[in-house]
Amino acid sequence: RRSAEDRDALRRMNSIYDVPVEEKMTSWPGGEMLLAMTADTGATRTFYAVFAASDIARAARELEELGKNAAPDTVSSGGYLLTGIPVSPGGESILGMLYGGLFREIKTMHYTLLGKYVVFAETREALAVFVRDFSVGKRLVRTRAYAALAENLSRKANYYAYFSIPGLRETLQPCVSAAGAGLLADNRELIGGVNAIAFQAGNTFSLF
Fold first, then answer.
1. Is the pTM higher than 0.85?
2. Which of 45, 102, 126, 181 is the most buried (most CB within 10 A)?
3. Cis, peptide link before residue 166, omega less than 30° from 0
4. Residues paired with residue 156 on neighbouring β-strands, in sequence order
């Protein structure tokens, strides 16, 4: 359930962008949604949100409508268009308001269309890196380590999380409670010896 604060922010955004923001952002996603974050060794971490579109042409139209009154900035990179929608004066995250949690980390929306997917990132530079990796075939499913792990996974799940090492402890840190953070710290050596962790949940099985 959306908080009163988010409802107020959404009303402000509807007025600022002069379109129904929620409708423009929720009328086209299909059955897949991904939030990814890199485990950078530096002080910053990059977040990506990826949505499969039930109709990619409609997604393009709706996102264009969303940004048309906000002076969107579009450039070409690797044959793909990267569009930035200026953040609202209040600084609220559109993705955060609609989907909550870590989606709030993507405050300034830059997006591009890749096949049937819409990819969002906080900066144009981060989005350009994603496009470049996609263009040269640098994908998780093609790595030997992930292929070995995937053999033990179900092909169907409502929720799926995958953590790659190095940087697992730092990556998990913002996702867990204070008690969980303590467990991560106490088991630093054990976690450092793990190559990857994955877990799934679905309505046909509990958790494994």
1. no
2. 126
3. yes
4. none
Q: What span, in angstroms and rounded, lies between the C-alpha atoms of 118 and 123?
A: 15
Q: What is the C-alpha to C-alpha distance for residues 73 and 71, in angstroms, rounded to an integer?
A: 7
One-letter amino acid identity for 24? K
Q: What is the DSSP string of the chain?
A: ---HHHHHHHHHHHHHHTS-HHHHHHSSEEEEEEEEE---SSS---EEEEEEESSHHHHHHHHHHHHTTS--EEEEETTEEEEEEPPPTT---HHHHHH-GGGGG--SEEEEEETTEEEEESSHHHHHHHHHHHHTT--GGGSHHHHHHHTTS-S--SEEEEEESSSHHHHHGGGS-HHHHHHHHHTHHHHHT-SEEEEEEETTEEE-
Q: How far apart are CA 16 and CA 89, in angstroms?
A: 8
Residue 59 has a CB neighbour count (10 Å cut-off) of 24
Check residue 208 and give its pLDDT: 37
How far is the C-alpha of 37 from the C-alpha of 165, rounded, in Å? 12
CB 106, CB 95: distance < 8 Å: yes
Burial of 62 (0-12, 13-18, 19+ CB in 10 A): buried
Which ranges of the chain have pLDDT less than 70?
A: 1, 39-44, 88-90, 138-150, 152-175, 192-208
Q: State the pLDDT at residue 69.
A: 76
Report the pLDDT value the prediction gives residue 207, as an integer from 0 to 100: 40
